[in-house]
């Protein structure tokens, strides 16, 4: 996505970049370490078609780098985050923290409703 195509609102820009379900989950995985396509597919449980399309979008947006290992006859491709991709670490960490807290609160609400 080019600069001219980015939303005016900063929150909307974040959603443009990582708002799709698989994008943020891929970034979360790549924050841990670089991964091969097959590793991402297995970990995430998405189809190869969806993963390929999403990785291409992340690459076009400058968040992910695709690197093919030409030193082997096998078709080994690894993906890793760019420096810009790594700046999403606090965003992912905040999402994880919020998700954990929401689940805790939701459980409390449901337990309370059962008792009333």
The average pLDDT value, as a whole number, equals: 91
Through-space gap between termini: 51 Å
Q: How many domains make up the coordinates?
A: 1
CATH-defined architecture: Orthogonal Bundle
Q: SSE order in H/E notation?
A: HHEHHEEHH
Widest β-sheet, arrangement of strands:
1-3-2
- Topology-level CATH name: Arc Repressor Mutant, subunit A
* Biggest sheet details: 3 strands, antiparallel
β-strand percent reads 5-15%
Q: Give the overall silhouette.
A: globular
CATH class identity? Mainly Alpha
> Going by CATH, what is the homologous superfamily?
Winged helix-like DNA-binding domain superfamily/Winged helix DNA-binding domain
The residue fraction in helices comes out at 55-70%
Number of strands: 3
The low-pLDDT segments are none
Number of helices: 6
What is the CA-atom radius of gyration, in angstroms? 18 Å
Q: How does the helix and strand content classify structurally? A: alpha+beta
């Amino acid at each position: 996505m080019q600069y001219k195509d980015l939303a005016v609102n900063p929150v909307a820009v974040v959603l443009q970049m990582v708002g799709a379900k698989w994008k943020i989950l891929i970034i979360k995985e790549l924050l841990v370490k670089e991964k091969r396509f097959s590793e991402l597919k297995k970990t995430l449980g998405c189809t190869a078609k969806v993963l390929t399309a999403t990785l291409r979008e992340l690459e076009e947006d400058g968040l992910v780098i695709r690197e093919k290992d030409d030193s082997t006859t096998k078709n080994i491709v690894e993906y890793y985050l760019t420096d810009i991709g790594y700046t999403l670490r606090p965003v992912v960490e905040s999402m994880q923290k919020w998700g954990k807290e929401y689940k805790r609160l939701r459980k409390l609400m449901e337990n309370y409703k059962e008792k009333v």
